Amino acid sequence: MERSAQEELSALAAIFCGPGEWEVLSRSETDGTVFRILTKAEGLTDADVPLELVFHLPVNYPSCLPAISVTSEHLTRAQCAAVKEKLLEQAENLLSEPMVHELVLWVQQNLRHILNQPEMGSGSGKCTFAASTAVDDGLWITLLHLDHMRAKTKYVKTVEKWASDLKLTGRLMFMGVPDSSENFQNRCGLKWKEMQREND
Predict the structure, then answer these.
(1) Is residue 51 within 8 Å of 39, Cβ to Cβ?
(2) Contact between 27 and 20 (Cβ < 8 Å)
(3) pLDDT, average across residues 5-29
(4) I need a labelling partner for 119 at 20 to 30 A (CA). Which of 26, 32, 154, 198 fits?
(5) What is the fold of 3-115?
(6) What is the chain's Cα-based Rg?
(7) How much is the pLDDT for 160?
(8) What residues does the RWD domain cover (predicted)?
(9) pLDDT band at 175, cuts 50/70/90?
């Protein structure tokens, strides 16, 4: 890693010195450095939105762009993707110079404007991803647990609508006490097959 990048990492550690604000996730002479910065920026409702920014600085950084991941429990997946896209656009303007602190300052000042764009909805879905040192945004896994479901059909339709609106794929699983004769028959059939297998 270039000397300017090493100096930048030291400066960032000094700037983001609050509890949990800064964490190095991995460091390698071949893959570079991955670290996380926790910060806040003003959202649409004037309230601060917590942001988790993960940067992957390759070994030839700042001659090439860092990989960036944006997550927040207060933003939808689409909003996180839009923030990431704008950060990468901004990073292109800063190529060949240390840029991480500039990018953090930029997102703190511009988050409200990004979220205010017409294509950005104010949905309540949360933007999350599995805890990992990887910055790849290709696979997202989310588990939605509904407890005490009174109107199963209504819940299923709501979840299907969310999946359709967000262009997600997934599975619905029903666990616990069977609530329909069909479900009960399926469970009994499964047990019967298992018992039959044991007797064979």
Answers:
(1) yes
(2) no
(3) 93
(4) 154
(5) Ubiquitin Conjugating Enzyme (3.10.110)
(6) 23
(7) 78
(8) 7-114
(9) low
Which one, of 175, 127, 118, 135, lies nearest residue 152 by Cα? 175
CA distance 66 to 69: 10
Return the structure tokens found at 43.
Answer: 């959202």
**What is the C-alpha separation between 69 and 134, in angstroms, rounded?**
9
Residue count of the chain: 200
- How many Cβ atoms sit within 10 Å of the Cβ of residue 155? 14
pLDDT band at 89 (very low <50, low <70, confident <90, very high): very high
With CA atoms as reference, report the closest residue to 39 among 96, 87, 88.
87
Q: Where in the chain is the domain with CATH 3.10.110.10?
A: 3-115
Q: Hey, how many other C-beta atoms are within 10 angstroms of the C-beta on 81?
A: 14
Comparing C-alpha atoms, which of 76, 65, 72 is closest to residue 37? 72
> Measured in whole angstroms, how far is the alpha carbon of residue 4 from the centre of its chain?
29
Q: How many CB atoms lie within 10 A of CB 59?
A: 15
Residue whose pair of structure tokens reads 């570079």 in the numeric block: 32
Phi, psi (degrees; rounded to nearest 5) at 32: 90, -155
* Tens-place pLDDT, residues 99-141: 999 999 999 999 999 998 876 554 444 444 333 333 445 556 6
